[in-house]
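Hi L.,

As promised, glycerate dehydrogenase:
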Amino acid sequence: MAKPVSIEVWNPNGKYRVVSTKPMPGTRWINLLVEQDCRVEICTQKKTILSVEDIIALIGDKCDGVIGQLTEDWGETLFSALSKAGGKAFSNMAVGYNNVDVNAANKYGVAVGNTPGVLTETTAELAASLSLAAARRIVEADEFMRAGLYDGWLPNLYVGNLLKGQTVGVIGAGRIGSAYARMMVEGFKMNLIYFDLYQSTRLEKFVTAYGEFLKANGEQPVTWKRASSMDEVLQQADVISLHPILDKTTYHLVNKERLALMKKEAILINCSRGPVIDEVALVEHLKHNPMFRVGLDVFEDEPYMKPGLGDMKNAIVVPHIASASKWTREGMATLAALNVLGKIKGYPVWSDPNRVEPFLNENARPPAAAPSIVNAKALGLPVSKL
Ligand SMILES: NC(=O)c1ccc[n+]([C@@H]2O[C@H](COP(=O)([O-])OP(=O)(O)OC[C@H]3O[C@@H](n4cnc5c(N)ncnc54)[C@H](O)[C@@H]3O)[C@@H](O)[C@H]2O)c1
């Protein structure tokens, strides 16, 4: 039996009991719940990753909804416990929900929310930051400087790659992949090659228009290509960024064979989910190809790195901070809270999870809808007409 976990309570007399497994940024999400008669309980336990037992203890005997995190394993056990406590809503504070067994949630009639849109640009900006840091060897150079090793300008000191005119490859050109592609094309005048199961017409139109603009100004136009296979992207691109969802089809999408297809001086960025790359194969590849560089926000066995990765000078590693801007994290908390509230109050589901701005306007009441419920169809939930 897990020990009781410490909690902070808001609005103790609220009718609906909503639990958040972590303190989340900002207070708007708390206020929105409290205004609608919720008692909000926030777990303040000093433990980064809560166990299933910890969360069962938090759910207790009566719980209407839970806001949880991507580090938690939301499967049969937790959905069964939530359902037994009368709960009908769960929301991840993340857009990805590979930690959630949606079939198990369906079985217990629990709505599963996620937080799309609000983190698109923030995550793309980190992928762009890692791309630049890897191309220009910023972390290595910073370490060199701090170690007191700089004794004067040299023609060969930390020579990296120029991005302008090179090709950026995007695997998974959805919301984040497309935003990243636009940043790299517009910001650094890179050509684009992408692979996705679906055509990204808006992205193609953007690159075409920007290319025409550059041409009209006497500059080299940028180009785009939709690759017919992922391997084509790996072979042709100089910088490759991974942005697919994690599911069975994308597990170890980048493996030993695919790493071997990439250019010797290529840069690989991962801000999607760790298991999209076979990290053991990546460490071996980094060892044998010192000019190949990676920028990683996510890891296969998070929070751990595979042995050897932390020693590689040609790897930049950051602790899953791609969505970590104040505005985004507060917005994610708001969307997660409104997903849970929407189901509790019987509101319909918002019609377009790519258009969540009305929920993020701090100066207006949010629409009476749940912003993004991934199993709305399976549960037959009504859709908002707004
Ligand atoms: N590192 C972070 O902090 C962070 C932050 C936000 C999102 N993410 C991850 O990024 C993922 C993408 O987010 P999004 O909002 O852009 O989602 P999205 O659904 O808009 O885009 C995902 C894209 O991947 C494509 N795809 C699926 N399978 C594919 C395959 N086998 N090959 C190529 N493309 C494939 C889909 O067609 C879709 O266009 C999330 O699922 C999440 O795991 C990570």
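The pocket of nicotinamide-adenine-dinucleotide is lined by residues 95-96, 116, 119, 123, 171-177, 195-198, 243-246, 249-250, 271-273, 297-298, 320, 322-323 (CB under 6 Å).

Thanks again for sending the construct details.

K.
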